[in-house]
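protien #1 (seq + structre)
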Amino acid sequence: MIEIRRTKWTRLKYVSYTLAVVSVIVLGFIFWPRTGALSPWNAGRIIDDNVFYDTNTFASVQDIQNFINDHTPACDTWGTGRSEYGGGTRAQYAVNRGWHGPPYACLRNYHENPNTKETSFEKGGGWFSGGLSTAQIIWNVSKEFGINPQVMLVILKKEQGSLFTDSWPLKSQYKYAMGFACPDNGPGNTANCSSEYAGLYNQLRMAARQLRLYANRPNEYRYKAGRTNYIQYNPDAACGGSWVYIENQATASLYNYTPYQPNQGALNAGAGTAHCGAYGNRNFWRFFNEWFGSPLNSVKIDSPLSIKTEKTGSKLFTNMEVTASFTIRNSTNQRRDLGVMVIAGRDSNSNNYDFGSQRVVLEPWQSYTYRASTRLDKEGDYRFWISNYRDGSGWSDNYPESSAGNVREVATFVQSPPTVVSAVTTQISRIHKNQSVNVGFQVKNNSAKPVDLGYFGLAITSPSGKNADVVFDTVNQLSPGAVYNYNKEFLPREEGLYRARISGTLDGGRTWTETQYPVATDASAGNRATFTVLPSLTLTQGITFSSANPRSGDSVTTTFKLKNSSNQPITTSEYTCLILRNQSGQNYDLGCLSPSIIQSNQELEFKATRPFPVGTYNAYFSTFDGRRWQDYKTPPLETGQEVVKAEMRVLPDVVLSEGLSISSTTAHVGEQLTGTFKLENLSSSVSNHNQQLCYIIRRRQGGNYDLGCLPTSGIPPKSQSSFSLSRTFNEPGEYEAFFSLYDNGVWREGSYPPGLTGKESSRATFTVLPSLTLTQGITFSSANPRSGDSVTTTFKLKNSSNQPITTSEYTCLILRNQSGQNYDLGCLSPSIIQSNQELEFKATRPFPVGTYNAYFSTFDGRRWQDYKTPPLETGQEVVKAEMRVSA
């Protein structure tokens, strides 16, 4: 049924009356689906606007088609089924009644061409080229005019319910299927339909258009939202009516379309009838409930709009992650496409700070929480609200509706956050158990307005996980630009690692900021800190030797220190001992600190002094509790750098300060050589050793030429003792000098005291040459003369001794050419050579062309010895030579 009250309209010309339409029932009956509980009937609010104008309730044409298929019977297109009314088949029954014959197009198969007006009744009962299905027509007109396709289906059912139950409907059942342009002004308030709008396509499109016009031009129609309207119970005015406050436009549109309300009898009748009843809007309400769930608040905002940060709640700050959220609930049994939901945001200059848009599709009875985050970069006033965009409806700030008490808009001031501008610091760098220290940090207000720091402070967790928080402060207003100094006493009751963090609450403890507020900076190290609390009693000075490398006989002082850094005395229960063992494990322990009462801030020093013999000593701690020893048990360290294991090397007091030396590495028989070395006593006492360091010389060809020994004992402190002895060597040969230590009656060849620098020599070699030596080898005045040139050949012998020498052999210079021909040059005859006298052999003559080889030979009066060479002075003298004489 539809009522139109307007002054003019292009299609209906000057219609100025009330049109009332009743369902045209040709065959079949109104089908009431099985139903559960219905939403409460409210004559002023039959359906909500957000449901009525929601075009996204079906995702596709196929979804509408599926719905129609699920709510209509199978088609008997050719009327072959047995007639419900007798008389053979359905087709036969129709002919007998004067109705048209098959095909019969049921709702699920119906198609219509809007341009030619051809339908499935003329085209074989189903699809044909150019024809639109019922589902397609509903989809198209819903999108075109912004009407919920569910509304179109429900109006179709309430106006022509037989199309949902009849398996072989007649064409006439489609003619005025939406009751459009069928006013109740015929005889007896019957329908008086206009043929201008006949046909399913016309009915659906014009009905959707009319429902949109009601919303677009609400003042042109009788029933208006937001005011009280008198609504009849029946087309017969005598049946009465009542005044109804219409709450929304969708309900006003239904009354403008079907201008009656059900009386109590009609409501009580359920699907039945009652005296003076009207059923159009009642049936709309019932069918919608049964098919799609409640038309009231079917989709609604089910929570207030929340704009907050995780840690600071509803107090918002720039550059923090701000999360916006609200919950939507679908209270229907249908899938609902809500389009795009967004939380819009604007600052005071209308700059856009929208949160992310989200496409929302809700399954039946589903709830969905919109949640999105952003960061606000400027201080100032902001406004946030829920907004929606749907195809065909555009942007709306009111859809979906909010349930009672759930705000959908929030206005707030966003501040620049306060920052922690210093690290969490302690009064002293090393803290001890039961030692009171101050801890603190600084906070600065960076906002142009006073800022609320809330209830905040330093949360501290002890090594065992216990709460060791210091006192928190409440600062509700910190002036712009001001710095707040947080400084509190901290008294640790445990030793170990403490973890501290800046924490606070802005909402009375419901949420805690936990390092996030006030905001951390590079200077604040993430608003976190750790500090190690040491035991009250610590080792403040480790094992310390007055000298790590003393000399045997030197007194060495060994110390360590313990300190009580707490605020109260400590009673120790163990002996803290310093153990010292040499490389053989011998005991040189130094003593202990006995159990005692150590006062607050008192430092105890252990000290022991004594000399040590040569050796390597290892020192370490050990404790004794009266029953057992615990080696290497160390007092707790103050800095971690204290020495708890130490090594001392006690060096010999006597060292070799100058190594073994010989006055010359080359000498002649009869010459005197001097050997030297020096010992030094580096200790602070006279050396006392039963040892002698001896200068040993051996000729490689055999023979003992030792120079003597120097005692290592009796050397005064910090003094030297020198060895220097000489002897004459009468035998030529290679000699080696080295040390040997005579130690308590035992010779230790090659042993000697350690060197002062480590570079001191301990061995030497030298050569003693014969008295007569070759001081100049074979020498040609020219090695490559010309034939006929005179060549002078020489060599020299010298007596380097202090006395004359009488030679007994001829020393001859042999010269042979390449053919072995003799060109010998002569000899030095046996003679007496005086001390330091040098004899020269010289021969001059020309030579024919050839290659000549020269060498020495000796003759003792009986035989020649070729290549026998006089002893060489340096070893570099030439004893074989070649000369090439050219033409």
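ok now protien #2
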Amino acid sequence: MASTPPSDLPPPVIGTGYAANQLQRALDAVARGEPAAERVRRWRDVIAGMLSGDTEAGSRQPVARYPDWVTLEVVTGGFATGKAVAASPLRPHEITLLQELGLSDAESPRLALNRYFLSDAGLARLNEALSSRRFAIEVAEESALLVVAWLGAQGHGQIAARLVADLAPFARELRFYPRLDLSVAASDDRVHLDTIGEVARALGRIGPNAQIDAQREAIEVWTPLYDAVVGLFLETVEGPTPIAAKDADGQWQRGERGQFIVQGGWPLKQRPEGWTTRAREVLSSIRESRKSHGRCGKLDRVNETFSLLVKALEQAVDDPDRLTGREVGRIRLALARYVAKRGHPASATASEARDRQRRQIAGKTNHELAVEVSRRMSELPADDGLDDIDVVLRPSGSERAPRAEACMERRLNRCLNDTPRGLIRRGIVSSSEVLARLLPQRTSQLRAASFADGALRTLYASTYRAFRRRRSLLLLNLQKQVQIEDLPWVAAIEPMRAVDEAAAQAARAALDEFATIAIESFPQTMLPNKLLQEFMALAREADLKLPFTEELAADIFMGAFSPKFLDAVHIAGHLLSGSLYARYYRVDYGDVLRRVPQASARRESRAQDALAVVCAERAAESLGAWRPASNGRIIEEQLILTSHNLALLFERGEVRERFNGRTLELAQSCYDWVLDHLQLPTADWRTELQRIKNAAYAWRQMVFFLSMDASQLSAFLIGANELLAQQPQAFAARFRPALRGLQMAGESPEQWLANKGELPFLGWRDTQRWRRPSGAVQA
């Protein structure tokens, strides 16, 4: 199918359809009782902004009244709500500071605080916070006045004045100052998934559990009263204690009409001395307990045995003659079943059963322990992690709560300090996406290392970590996301960097280390964009020109690739030309590299579209169709041609050396994952198609790893065929062509290249062959 550059075609328009669908899903969640009110609010703001023109989806500056460096509230898909994160309502620490400064009645509280921190007293306070490392930055804007204070203290008054002028138009709204009552995280090689502050806030949201509270109340309050009522009635039995019969299997025995078989005497035949007085005392205790213990509702359920016996006891005390024979029979049956289950209330059997119940509820509940642990965590640096969770979970002398502690351990592990590999071994980091959340902690320190001043290094590292929490925007026309250097206060200190070969070498080593960890731990997963952002930052710090390429969204692809994709194709071509990878995906890298110039060799403005043209031809699609499925097929061909950063990383000798002799293991891991992933229970067709895409991407990574050591292909194919033979017959038959195609590409390449009817395993083409038969799709 012919393909043409898209320069003369109208661009796609981003409408409100996606946002409206997300709003409906949020409303449905609210209707189900889920806590989704904030999601509803955000999506309503997105739609209102798009309809009014206040926000422009797809723009680098989607909210016209804010410059592009302002951190915006962004929802799924990269849509801006129109709000700035640093313009949120006053935080508790701001209110406390306003009170301390006597500014509680200020007409514009945030402007008053920004002005205070520009006063001599405020600047001195900020410089003291810098030197003592006692500040916390949650949003990048909160470091702006710290930079102003540092610049002023270092004699850079003019730079500080220009920066203040840039910030001034937004000082009424935005929080340009940090929180000053918390300490900055210590710097070392360890990382944590969440900070102490984030976990403490999450613990603060754990409320009482109504079911657990009801269970505790039932065992501690009502069960002893229930036993007392049963004991009172058993005192009135004349003859043997009534007991309901059970068979050898422990099931109730029934008579011909289905009734319980009860043996023993009848209640209310006698009244020992003092019985009525003791009965009144128990009834009085029950009435008092009802006033303050209404969680479990045992007395309010009509068919509850306890409720029946209490009403009968009241009648037996006040007017026993009104009890009918039928009612006495029901009392006898209730007593008989109780005795059959537990024995007499005073027996050892009953006591052991009640002791077991009390042990089950012993100790603190999740809510109680969460309150206690979050209080201990509030005394620690909020921006740091925990070296040992026992410090807050099991301090010396504290009461143990085994059941709650097990749950709390899982929560606290999220802020545990450890190396990335250590967190992966512990199961705390379970995907490359989660791994990407860890790296800003290390990258921030490495990027900051080239500043000579220690306070500035700490400030930059904190700003970097806060900036990396910024959510990416939906962008069109090959626009680039805002970079940390685009923040005016960061731009003001960038010239203060010193050329430091040791820092560059550390960044190179970290890049190689993190790339190795990501590949060896999650070989089946493409490197996610958030992880690639950190790799790019490390490459800049290491002075390496590495064209890392992000995964592109099919629904907003504009029919062209940015220049770095061209360089990535050339790197892949030099590494993979003539390899199993090139044969399997039928890539003639010689032809591709002739048609796709390197970015530095472009001679005309439309040369960057050459890669898009090649990809469209390979996908048999036309450029400019603006259909997600068509775009997806074109983008997948780009992923194949560039290998999505794998060739770029394996071209680095340090990375490739770490995987010498290990690529077979990586390929086998990918293959195992693909087989498992394609057989997961599937609820709907969208989920199934996404799983097919993920499996195809994992398959591509597998082929790449096999191509790094051609001598391992035979061993791999033997094991792969054996494993496939162990799968369910229907799945094995459906999947076998994929393995057969790989085997043909490796052992009979001419036959494979000539057999155009057999496609490689792709995620966007010929997906029907990989789908389950309709009757096999599982909910």
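Strands lie at 72-75, 79-84, 243-244, 262-263.
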